[in-house]
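Example record for the data management plan.
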Amino acid sequence: MSAGESANRSRRNPRRRNARAESDKPKLRTVRETSAGGLVVDGLDGPPAQRCAALIGRTDRRGRLLWSLPKGHIEQGETAEQTAMREVAEETGIRGSVLASLGSIDYWFVTEGRRVHKTVHHYLLRFLGGELSDEDVEVTEVAWVPLSELSSRLAYADERKLAAIASRLIEGMNDPGPETPVGRE
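Corresponding structural encoding:
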């Protein structure tokens, strides 16, 4: 094979060209992490325009404030629901009770020389009390955000999808359903 043919083959098959470089890289250890959190909503029994959710803002490496749902690691002996209520309280100062599951988000990232496969279970919570507080060291800001603004405020697409699910669940909770005529059997 001529030098030109060899060069063309390498261009067509980039995997072959990079095979040596990839094999020289140390293999990252893969770990699994599970967390839970939620969307705590105030005003569930009131008019839709008055419903709002407690969000947390964290500053990323570039200095941008990114709004997201409160969440954290599940501790030994804790259920995902208990973790969601605890993390919401720790990160926002707000107490809530779980109403429904919103689903889970699954993603990968690399940190400190390891690949992390993370699953976060999210729940819809009813506001029970408390005052907004950003005392948690991981949180830059906390805010009540109208439900109608969640799709534009939440930084992550997966969390925006969960907020849409929450809105549908809330509408279903407040829908009286078909009326049954009184006095009929």
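Summary line stored alongside the record: The longest strand covers residues 94-111.
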